[in-house]
Amino acid sequence: MTKAALPPAGWTNPLRDERDKRMPRIAGPCGLVVFGVTGDLSRHKLMPAVYDLANRGLLSPSFSLVGFGRRDWDDAGFADFVRDCVQAKARTPFREETFARLAQGMRFVQGAFDEDASFERIADALRGLDEDRGTGGNYAFYLSVPPKDFPVVFKHLSATGLAHPPEGSWRRAVVEKPFGHDLESAIELNGVIKEVFDERSIFRIDHYLGKETVQNILALRFANQLFEPIWNAHYVDHVQITMAEDIGLGGRAGYYDGIGAARDVIQNHLLQLLALVAMEEPVSFAAHEVTTEKTKVLSAAKLSYPLDETTARGQYARGWQGGQEVCGLLEEEGFASDSTTETFAAITVEVDSRRWAGVPFYLRTGKRLGRRVTEIALVFKRAPHLPFDEAMTEELGQNALVIRVQPDEGVTLRFGSKVPGSAMRVRDVNMDFNYGQAFTESSPEAYERLILDVLLGEPSLFPVTDEVELSWKILDPVLEHWGAGGAPEQYPSGGWGPKSATEMLARSGRTWRRP
Ligand code: BG6
């Protein structure tokens, strides 16, 4: 491996001046060690994101990437693997020059999690990078591995001293979900990690927080005068948070069977969205201020009861999607033929605060639904009085503000408007803001933003212990209730979920949106 030019001693990035927020945020010298580097997440998201950051000039010249795994690879073999991942999935164009520069800092360490010698080899590789490339003893350890492997990895990181930074350098741990499978296991897991890293050095990934449209929730709410006055129980009838996916679970049985939709995405992504929508204005955008408000709102969030009526779960059955017949979950490879794992979950949450008293938040997610869409809809109360004949407003629904998280990113405001013509007829129309049309800048992938923030030590977009535990506290009673309730209701693939979900809203005269 050729030696890269070292940054001069005491090098600080001239572009990284905190006072000028217009300057790009560029990570200082450091190494990123990825455990589970050959897994799906790494191949599809992490490796491409690292390349995209390099391509955007946001990594320091000494940035180095260490892959750890069982494969019998050398550094060049690892670089070939990363090249394939990047060429298949990177967001920005492939540039040989960028890749070659990045590849100079790639190392592969072969080993197993339970082997002391493997971690000694990681330590050697990192020492070598400090010397050859000036990584300065700054390392982030990314655990893209099942949580059952966390304890052994953390134990070794501690035993080899890798978790403990010498004066003037840093060590950080990045952990992927699932962060436990209930409150008790999450507390246990937090305990394991905190024995080795302090809270400020732990970065728990919830990749939804890295999405531009999710970060825009706080901009929309707190940078404008227009919305905040109506963002409360006086005007909002209810809130619907939908994360619908059209994909099935073929190939994911190992992770998903026994986990289910509620643990997979409600506990993290959807409750984080709820927190951002329902929280009070933070004192500032400093990480701890935002966290304080999110934690407060999650403490005030409670399930609605009785759970038989306020929740719904389902499992996809055979059906049609995109013109193709697809099989049901029980026929997917790897799933037990009597699996009770839910692939659709919906819950009703209330937030006990003056702002939200009496406003239900309906959260739903599902696989093999009609289309892929994530959105947050604030559905407003009807006008208290309509000075029209009934026939004139037959086509008028409730006003709604819809934050379109993906794929068609933007915001829609739905309101009533007169239909052109000689009579007075009012019908719903949409006013749209669309990212593609409004901005020339394209949105970075969530993982680009999150990896960069880890390397910068910027914690705002990472849930803290309390948020994770409070989310489990909200969800645990539902999981217990469903656990005692036998098999979930089957719903046809390509539809919008089980009948029980429709009934759940119908009880209060409401309907789910059909995005
Ligand atoms: C992950 C879930 O967190 O998010 C997956 O584990 C899901 O089940 C994925 O498919 C969806 O992410 P995105 O960014 O495509 O909405």
Layout of strands and helices, then pairs:
Elements: E1 31-35, H1 40-55, E2 64-69, H2 75-89, H3 96-103, E3 106-110, H4 116-133, E4 139-143, H5 150-159, E5 171-175, H6 183-194, E6 202-204, H7 212-222, E7 236-244, H8 253-256, H9 260-278, H10 287-300, E8 301-303, H11 307-310, E9 312-317, E10 319-321, E11 324-326, E12 344-351, E13 360-366, E14 373-380, E15 400-406, E16 410-418, E17 426-434, H12 435-438, H13 446-456, H14 465-483, E18 489-492, H15 499-506
Helix pairs in contact: 1-2, 1-13, 6-14, 9-10, 9-14, 10-14
The structure holds 6-O-phosphono-beta-D-glucopyranose.
Instruction: State the CATH class of the largest domain.
Output: Alpha Beta
- Name the beta content range: 15-25%
Mean pLDDT: 94
Label the structural class.
alpha/beta
Count of distinct strands: 18
- What is the CATH T-level topology of the largest domain? Dihydrodipicolinate Reductase, domain 2
Spans of at least 5 consecutive residues with low confidence: 14-19
- How far is the first residue's CA from the last residue's CA? 52 Å
Share of helix, binned: 25-40%
Function: Catalyzes the oxidation of glucose 6-phosphate to 6-phosphogluconolactone.
Pfam families: G6PD_C (PF02781), G6PD_N (PF00479)
Keywords: Carbohydrate metabolism, Glucose metabolism, NADP, Oxidoreductase
EC number: 1.1.1.49
